[in-house]
## 1
Amino acid sequence: MTREEMIETYRQWVFRMSAYQMALSIIEIDRSTVAPPAGASYRDERSAYLAGEAYSIMMDPKMLEIVNILKEDEQVDPVVRRGCQLYAIRLGNSLSFPKEKFVAQSMLFNQAYDAWLKAKQNNDYSIFEPYLKKIIESRREEYSCRNSDLPLYDQMLQDYEPGMTTEKYDAFFSAVTDRLVPLIHKVTEAEQIDNSFLHQEYPIEGQKKFMEHLLSYLHFDPSWGYQNETEHPFTSWTCQNDCRTTTKYIHDDVSSAILSTIHEAGHAWYQHNIDPAFDGMILSDGVSCGMHESQSRLLENHLGRSVSFWKANYPVLQEIFPSQLKDVTLDQFVAAINVAEPSLVRTEADELTYPLHIAIRYEIEKGLFNGTISTEHLDETWNAMYEKYLGVKAEQASMGILQDVHWSSGSFGYFPTYALGSAYAAQFVHTMEQQIPVHTLLEENRFDEIEAWLKENIHRHGCYLQPQDILKQATGEGADVHYYLDYLCDKYTKLYDLRGE
Amino acid sequence: MTREEMIETYRQWVFRMSAYQMALSIIEIDRSTVAPPAGASYRDERSAYLAGEAYSIMMDPKMLEIVNILKEDEQVDPVVRRGCQLYAIRLGNSLSFPKEKFVAQSMLFNQAYDAWLKAKQNNDYSIFEPYLKKIIESRREEYSCRNSDLPLYDQMLQDYEPGMTTEKYDAFFSAVTDRLVPLIHKVTEAEQIDNSFLHQEYPIEGQKKFMEHLLSYLHFDPSWGYQNETEHPFTSWTCQNDCRTTTKYIHDDVSSAILSTIHEAGHAWYQHNIDPAFDGMILSDGVSCGMHESQSRLLENHLGRSVSFWKANYPVLQEIFPSQLKDVTLDQFVAAINVAEPSLVRTEADELTYPLHIAIRYEIEKGLFNGTISTEHLDETWNAMYEKYLGVKAEQASMGILQDVHWSSGSFGYFPTYALGSAYAAQFVHTMEQQIPVHTLLEENRFDEIEAWLKENIHRHGCYLQPQDILKQATGEGADVHYYLDYLCDKYTKLYDLRGE
């Protein structure tokens, strides 16, 4: 086969995979938003079959040969070469896991999702436990087919964040808890900030109206993006010009939908800004989960909880909810949406306690895979850790171990990237603020100029660069957690007036 | 291959096709409801590819051999045998149309849909015309690959309604126009019924609230059905337990969403009630488009526009819209939603003029395929026919030739089934009223008993029986248009007090 023939074969192969990937994404979006539950088993069997077809296409040993040749060939377009490098890793990792096992695993994930949903609705961990156990066994078996010397959980961590290991995460979480746990104690003991006005009745229709304004302020464009409602907010996409976000409206908590909308818009912008030349290819995703999360957390926390952001947007919110907010000043509102208070649900956690929610999940995942924690009574383990780290206790499993969907799809090693992403975000913001007048831009409705900085420095690269390279290019240095911790300490010391203590 | 091996091969083949079919349905539902437009070309290319994969699986010549054997084998389960009969027809018809042509055609349909949408939004037929022309050429080429002695348009008619021909439809439409055109003239000249109160401002939120009530009255269950919003109401499904309907809310026309909701619920009930043993198989669709339409028209017109239906539901509507409806009596409301008035848009047409909208499309389709009508200036031809049949003229193409989506997907021969279905509906109702107390059941919130009659006599059979057999079993005779015409004449003579004339 000539080089040109190999490249053409590669392109067709990528196209075929992208078609299945698109179908599976849309089925997944549909399932998470509107699909009727009674159709689940029919749907699950068939989407597992289609996932298997995509797997068969990907696992073609001839393609491993081709990508191994192309990835080394200096004459080949660098975009194709980089794609081939990434596929070589993925195929090399998975080639010995047989298709039947893969399809059975997909089916298991589908069934586990349905079981998780039912368990959550019924507040009954025992409905989900047998599935969780099987998922862990299935993941063990899958990873045992890989040719790697790394411990199992380290392999999982690498899949979500290239370059990360248990050792590095241990150091990361230890730095985080060392500085944040005492800070949280101080905050808890300080004079509390009134945020009760956020918890009045806020009719959903008004919230939706504000979200339209907010999406428009964020230049989230209906021609390439669509926001839906779901139980558990997420962002999904099929290509650069088709990014879907979801949010959840809570009638007596106006900040929940606002902050999740800003958060998911961060993910959507990342996908939308990736170099169009990468569309449909393995390069067209965010480079890692941590990097993706950095973009959503950057928007949500560093921009979306700032005074300058709300200088532009608070008047609109006040206009929609005059009776609820007429006596609330801008500063009172911004203070209220920054309140830190240990709580049970990660997705509704404040910025300060958030990484501890992650630290708990990280500890549990490590334990599940090194054999020190079992799925049996894991709800109790969960509750005990929440008491230890955050001093709160879930009365209901739906607010405890069943709150998150991730484990139902076998996503272990994913959670830690949420905290890592927050740290990346702080580091990016530190540099960005030196280069562009971020807060003036926010005040002046010029979000597009912030987005242009993010596109240039982070988004456009897709998977073309590694996370470390992106950090280095954008900030001039490698990952450093101190930006994150300094930022939080500084912010919450001021907010709760802790300087004197 | 033994019989058992053939049956197993057949079952696996059916399962694989059903997986692609499900994916394509969900992609289509997504596209018609929420998918961002800028992603269209990416999506279109890939869904055409997947449609091609499904086509490849179906067009396996070995499977034609197997279904041809199984369909004749008396030892084989009758459900499998009937499925094989239907597949034998479908494969026999399509086997010589090459896959590349099929994929190109799918792609053309996808592009034509996008062009149609743009043309409609811009009121510009010239945007859509080149696609319509290509679609007709593509269909001509496709049908020329079939081994049939029937004229092209007759073959198309058969695909949507087995047993129907141009000759039969000519007779049908001639009977319809002969009796209805004079009746419509009389109605137009009679004293008009006030329906202006239907066109006040009806806030969408209130309409949505009423639709929730209505769906519940119709026992449309969120566990197996979901109603969404769209520009053009439709019903779609992936299996018996996953049926999706859509409706369109118009702020100054309260009856539009109500009647389309009832209409689409009729389609959804048909699919939901099909024998579960048929799920995923070719048998699991309604037997024909006419039969499907009979179920939606039956609910919409015979039940949904009746006094007894509104005895149960009008108080709820009045409660939601007190200022709009407090002075409107039940009888005034029911008369208003039955008003007949020649108009431009088929989906919003009244029951009496509706079949003339269909007669126009039938005449145009016949002309397009026998060469007497061309796509060029078809907008003008369309307008001229609307003036001739209904005395109305479209000022805008979006209200004229661009109003319907069907031709963008090459669906020629489909429209006539809408009128035929209305005739089937009248015939079913005639029998049903002799067997169960339909109007008492409606008044007493016992819709489930009506649905049980429809299930027993029509729905459950899926494609196991032919339309004629279903009619015969349910009503004791073959299709007879006089029930429909008698019903309309009787109804509108009374409503407009035409007896004296």
## 2
Amino acid sequence: MTLPVTIVADAACCATVREPRVGVEEAERIAHVFKALGDPTRVKLLSLIGAGEGGEACICDLTEPVGLSQGTVSHHMKLLAEAGLVTREQRGKWAYFAIAEGALDAAAASLRML
Amino acid sequence: MTLPVTIVADAACCATVREPRVGVEEAERIAHVFKALGDPTRVKLLSLIGAGEGGEACICDLTEPVGLSQGTVSHHMKLLAEAGLVTREQRGKWAYFAIAEGALDAAAASLRML
């Protein structure tokens, strides 16, 4: 009788590889959100919006505290919006931003998946 | 009697600017952690480590699941270690990584500051 034999090439290494909890698409989604959060200016912008009256802020109020032009701030806000972290509402001349409901909780929840 | 008068240059805009909850150094620190998390490979690596036996993984077990060379994986692990997200322990030939205790909770807590 012959038994099948599995050759372990380097038995000293390693612990069992288990299935990761996060799949490829999920990893892409999580990374997209954290990439948006991975910039000090964007962190400060989110903090300003969160501290704003009614949890929102006009773009015109965001430029001075971060010391950047409106164009640059708009670019940062676009990245935050694309990552689903903020919502944008045009009111006449000005764009107002609010932190997207549940977005920060969802980001925190994705950390618990790791 | 003369009363002090504050001229509001553009009264249509805006809501009161409040002090952001996050200072400059805090924003830098938070962004550093999230920048490390802002890459799908690094998210997957953290997930693999978290799912590993005893909550750790040998570098030799991380290369195949992400389909990258050991050099590239080492670079990603270095960024995660620098951001305080993982700890590294050399055991003979191999480096073992574990998710740094409390690191993901701290990252989640910083989201609640925003």
## 3
Amino acid sequence: MSTYHAFTEAEAIAYARRMPDLFAPDSELTSREIGDGNLNLVFHISEPATGKSIILKQALPYAKVVGESWPLTLDRARIESETLMIQESLCPDLVPHVFAYEKDLALTVMQDLSDHVIMRKGLIEGNRYPLFAQHIARFLANTLFYTSDLGMNQQEKKERVKQFINPELCKITEDLIFDDPYRDADTNNVPAAIRDAVETIWNDRELHLEVAILRNGFLTHAEALLHGDLHTGSIFIKEDSTKVIDPEFAYYGPMGFDIGAVFANLLLNYAAQEGWSRDEQARADYRGYLLGTIKEIWSLFHGEFRSLWSLYGVDRVQQSESYQDWYMQRLLRDTIGYAGCKMVRRVHGLAQVADINQLQDEAAKERAQRLALQIGTSLIKHHRHAQSIDELLDIAIQAVK
Amino acid sequence: MSTYHAFTEAEAIAYARRMPDLFAPDSELTSREIGDGNLNLVFHISEPATGKSIILKQALPYAKVVGESWPLTLDRARIESETLMIQESLCPDLVPHVFAYEKDLALTVMQDLSDHVIMRKGLIEGNRYPLFAQHIARFLANTLFYTSDLGMNQQEKKERVKQFINPELCKITEDLIFDDPYRDADTNNVPAAIRDAVETIWNDRELHLEVAILRNGFLTHAEALLHGDLHTGSIFIKEDSTKVIDPEFAYYGPMGFDIGAVFANLLLNYAAQEGWSRDEQARADYRGYLLGTIKEIWSLFHGEFRSLWSLYGVDRVQQSESYQDWYMQRLLRDTIGYAGCKMVRRVHGLAQVADINQLQDEAAKERAQRLALQIGTSLIKHHRHAQSIDELLDIAIQAVK
């Protein structure tokens, strides 16, 4: 009965009805499959009589992207549910609650967040989320600090590294973020209008060196349990609530990779402002909001992370101020570098972003793509020299001048 | 029958007699327990009639150091035997052959190397080993390259990281090498004569920062399958043969830690020359031999590692010359830093070295200890700025001027 097979809606309902404490055994339930069908089935199960609802998320044994299909481990459902449970223990209000995980079915039963919207969509609609910076800074500070050698027992951390070895999902990142965009790979989707800029990237050896260095960090620096795919499509949001979802790519990696992912996706929207039909002033205002959010996230993250470190650091050797200064500077540099990598791959790599791709005006879309490449490559090239988050902001500001 | 219990000599003989292809079932065997009894039982089993012999090494469930005893995982026998088998596949002549490993007994049956001597002893006796540099350079180049993201499938490497998670043994290193020597810890054995120099180390914040940075690398940089304890007591040697033994501390860590361990132990002998009863010229000659060996090891290692990389590198992104230059410079810096850490802990930490401790002349012993601390701390402080192996040699040369 619990041998793996992809659920039908009827099976999803039957399964949900058996969940104790959620629904009565005879309850009337409805199901709607709301996944995109590329990686997972996502059943929205609700009980109209009470208004109660939950999500059943089931991993599929393959991935479909642009028509291609390849096998993909079901173990990612375990990684995702176990990561969510650790994250919930650290910041309960910032991730969906997991009611149950069933290994054999690669199935996770979790809190329904239908009252939230995907943040990427919210940003495309021009919304502002004044609490987002403090929410995501708290998420990053707590999940990165408390899963690292700074904030947890260092022997238990090694067992966590083992628990979250995630070769197949890491491979996707290693190829699609750190390799394919920098060569003429089959997986790329190069927009014809910007082919010249993309070819410049393929031939830029200075850039390739910096990307190789960042990829080395991704391959070897087991610093903290990362979300691993923290773009604005992995964030559910509404005015007073932020929920980080979908940590299938979780593994022990460099902290800057998660922080950089957030900044990159805010900057991709910043670039996409070229094409949204607002007047100049509205565009400048929204860009100011996006950059202000980045600055606020870094500042709050930095403050909270160091405060956790001072109060709850487990390691005498790492408690000195000079070491913390060194560590935070290195983290800033990683963050800026990974932010750049996360931008570039979204312009001409396999998986692109709606912020830019939805633009109707072709000339504006081209400007947005060039802008994203310019900011992304500048961040990558500058990353090892960075001293302050203001340098990231300056790169973005100079690029639209 | 195979439930864990410490073997008697009779049991060791009975076990050996059952090994197929080694001894006949009715063979006359003798056993001699030659371990130091602190961590492992080591039975030397021989058949006088044929001259055949083997080693049975059995891990004990505790460690004894200076009278203290604490529990220690038997899993280290698995780590050791699996590491030896990987190393043998990469450089068959440089490690003992493993005939069998039996998990439940924490028992490894391996090649007898009684015709070799422990290298530390050989150096103390003033011997020279002209083939050592090329042997150990080949060992380092092959074991580090082929277990890293440079030389093996990067997804399989992640499974290897998992296989060699080694929390208990790493904890010993994290404490005894990177923590205790830099504070007034109970585990230290501070020689009274050099207490002033040791206290200077306890108060040197610049030094502490560099040690914390190196410890961070040990905790998080999963670059290659290290031996993890590669001092001259872990090397069996004779004129034409070098065998690296005892990789119980193996885990995925920074490559420079293994290379640095070799250099540190040659430099400890260099410092100990203060007290060996040779004339000035003989002392200077032997020191020249030791430094020449370090230079030759680095040069051969560097050449062989890069040559393997160019020929057998698995990773397009990491094949560029500028990246390889960056990587090798970083590796040199790590090597110099870890060499310094490995020296300092051997002067006033828990586990010291016979090279210095056997010195009879108290004044000479004190000079040797001060010299080792001076070289070690200079290497640590300089490590992030190093450009060439000559800087390590200069630090050693200046220290005896």
